[in-house]
């Protein structure tokens, strides 16, 4: 995330928020957070209930937002 943040700063992209947190804590984020994009990488296959994580993330997307899962 350090590299991503530095890259955003060097390009004067000040409307980007990077959050690193446990997948199990996603539902604790306030719905005041609304994201254009959510990127989930290499985690869903390791979770007991990946569907609940996906649903929690979907609730945080702006209308027409995109969630990318790898």
Task: Please explain how this structure is put together.
This protein has 70 residues and is of the alpha+beta class. The relative contact order is 0.20. It contains two helices and two strands, in the order H-E-H-E. The chain has helices at 2-10, 50-58; strands spanning 35-40, 61-69. The chain has a two-stranded parallel sheet. Helix content is 26%, strand content 21%. The protein starts with a helix and ends with a strand.
List the helices and strands and how they pair.
Blueprint: H1 2-10, E1 35-40, H2 50-58, E2 61-69
Parallel strand pairs: 1-2
Throw out a few tags for this protein.
single chain, 70 residues, alpha+beta, two-stranded parallel sheet, 21% strand
């Amino acid at each position: 995330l350090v590299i991503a943040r530095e890259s955003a700063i060097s390009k004067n992209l000040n409307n980007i928020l990077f959050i690193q947190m446990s997948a199990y804590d996603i539902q604790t984020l306030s719905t005041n957070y609304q994201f254009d994009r959510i990127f989930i990488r290499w985690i869903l296959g390791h979770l007991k209930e990946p569907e609940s994580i996906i649903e929690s993330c979907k609730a945080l997307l702006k209308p027409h937002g995109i969630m990318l899962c790898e």
